[in-house]
Design a protein that fits this description.
This protein has about 160 residues and is α/β, with parallel strands linked by helices. Helices cover about 35% and strands about 15% of the residues.
Length: about 160
């Protein structure tokens, strides 16, 4: 089912999934204070706990979604995915609006966490590890631009891992 949920800032988005229980164009409700998000802050969840919650995830073709589906299949955990939304802004707005959960890297919601809009918890048992691979051919040496891109990418990833 495709339906319009609302807007996030100036960006309109739509969701694919069972959205019949959420009124179209309803105002997005953000927590009124940091106290509302504190019960979830810093918790460590077992992956199996996700079976109890409604999730909003990226489309099945997303690398993150493929990993989440793979882990859920291996652990035989039934996930309740109420919406497939490719847009990060759309997933954030849907999670804030409907009280469902999303799986994201902590740095992608750091601004919202600081403002008390979202709280971040860590998935454990198992960890979901994301990989980045940089491949270079052997036929000729890397150009200056290629070396610079690889260097900046590596530095950025190392900085994100320290957070």
């Amino acid at each position: 089912m495709v339906g319009s949920i609302g807007t996030a800032g100036e960006v309109a988005f739509s969701a694919i999934g069972d959205i019949s229980r959420f009124p179209a164009k309803a105002p997005i409700r953000y927590p009124q204070s940091l106290e509302e998000t504190k019960p979830f802050a810093g918790l460590r969840f077992d992956f199996r706990r996700l079976a109890e919650d409604d999730l909003v995830l990226p489309a099945r073709t997303s690398g993150l979604r493929i990993m989440v589906d793979s882990v859920a299949g291996c652990l035989k955990v039934p996930l309740t995915i109420i919406a497939d939304i490719d847009s990060t802004i759309g997933r954030k707005a849907m999670a804030a609006h409907c009280g469902c959960y999303m799986i994201k890297a902590p740095h992608t919601i750091s601004n919202e966490t600081a403002r008390g809009v979202f709280a971040s918890s860590v998935l454990r048992s198992p960890f979901i590890t994301r990989h980045v691979t940089v491949v270079a051919g052997r036929q000729r040496p890397l150009s200056w631009a290629s070396r610079e891109v690889a260097s900046r990418l590596t530095a950025t990833l190392e900085r994100l891992m320290r957070r």
